[in-house]
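Worked example 2:
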Amino acid sequence: MIDQDSGPKTRELSERESAAWEIELRGRLGLVSTLPAQIRLWGWIVTAIAALLAAVTRLTGLTHPHQMVFDETYYVKGGYSLITYGYERDWVGSDADEMFVQGLDAAADTIGDYVVHPPLGKWLIGFGQALFGTDNGFGWRFATALAGIISVILITRIALHLFRSVPLAFAAGAFMALDGVGIVLSRTGILDSLLAVFVLAGFWAVLHDRDWTRRRLARRVAHGPVDREGRPLAALGPIILFRPWLLAAGVLIGLGCGVKWSAIYALAVFGILVFVWDTAAKRAIGVRRWFTSGVLTGGAPAFVNLVPIAIPTYLLAWLSWFLDPRGYRRGWAEMRRTIGEEVPFEQFGDTIAEFISYHRQMWGFHTGLDSEHTYMSQPWDWLLQLRPVNFYWPPEEKLVQDCGAERCVQAISSIGNPAVWWLAAASLIVVLWYAIVKSDWRAWAIVAGYGATYLPWYGYIGRTIYQFYSVAFLPFVVLALVFGLAWATDTLTPPNLTAVRRAAARRLKKRGAEDWTLTISPDEERTEDPSTHAHAAQSAISSEPAAMEAGTAAARTAPSPSDPEDSPYLDEPDLDHEDSASVEPDPIERAVATMGGPEALSYELHLGSKRASLIFSLTYGFVIAFAILWWPLWTGMTIPYEFWKLHIWLPGWS
């Protein structure tokens, strides 16, 4: 009912109208009202299959090699020191690694070791040793292997959330489970796989916050005071202060910072992403001052929920250092005073002054490391895996297995699966197109992932950095690949209800050009009969009956990605068109007329076409074939030297 007073034109919605309008707003915001039980079941089935595949590739033969691999010498012994002594001891002597492998810690000195990364990752590696022993590779590497498996589970669930397709979700999980960067870093006791899982978990929490917040926005608008078109009367719209999923994201990214500092970029980029999404949501629900609202009622509360909690979480990772006076840099303040030197920040106490001094020393290391290394590379090399790192290459006399050839070798290379990385590099072009031109929020989410975990390395050009850092953005590489495949196979579901309607309108226009009878405006035949009005509202939603069939996806009404006349996928409806009043039916009446019908934004259980199945089958074939080919070099198997040479396709791969 519409208030006819001289004041602002308000509209009191009935219970049925409010329920229908809430469903409508959810659709505009890109939300699905309910997740069908069949989709939920198959979603977890494909997640379990992907997790099993990840467990096989990461746990099989994890004890090999029975010696320190690459930088394990720092982090495995550091983890052992933490769980055994409570602080990181310095290890002395050239034979310290060999003694440790034999189960001896006589090479561990009592002085604190200078380490350049926070302790949390080493604590996790140490917990693996506490569970499975300190004298075997399974104990050294269990934590990183578990992190790799969890990452595959997370990427499968994230892909299901983004693409609303069970086959696409499985593809994401399978591709990540069979990638060499993920496999090698999961099978090596260093920090990067642990960093990656915390950042990815933070991204997963940010996605959940997006849905959680938008559901509440839709409900508060639909059940609150609105104008004649269903827009909130409050100039700034609904205000949501407490956001538990953002708190969780802040904790998870704070834990990532407790492993490696580079996680802080994710905190910044994901925070910006949340602000943009909040602002777009306010515009989509018709808030008059949507940008101001995005800043004051979206960005500000989001910052308060996301950022402050990350600071104490990071400090918690240093708890053992604060509690144990034997750690590195402890006692430094008193030592400086005894020799008559100034102690910076001593007004905060010796422990805080030593903590700050330690961090300044770590910062100097990370920003000043520029020594040459055989396997150093630059960020532009990583997208195509042009310079992988050889983690393991023992002398021939130490090989305990015979390969049956004149010369045998063992090697562990961090090379990614070429089918994954090379196809993903091409798919990234599609992702950027959809982000910039079509304003697809899912494409922007993937771009934000690259921005948080890949782009910051361009600030370290010329420094000593390595290709295996790319494990942190491997999940977004996989998402880009799946996005590109979905585009190529026309299985990319529409991002919101507005996209569905625009696609339907374009198809109606196209069909009208072919059949002039379809171009007759409903207004020309409209009567005062309410049923006729409801029929017009229904026709505005979908011009193709097949688009609304039960059990079929709304993606079938989505525009073909190859159509050059496609309108952008916006995150909000066109609320201000001058002629909307003369063309569009009443939006709330339209919502009521279509309530109870099939879900406009639905999930896909199948790929839907033979062409899509063929393309995905070929991609699976390439990924699996390359995984089989490279498996010996990802796990350090004994192989003929000539077979190893067959893998050296590019000069940088040797």
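The radius of gyration is 29 Å. The CA atoms of residues 12 and 621 lie 58 Å apart.
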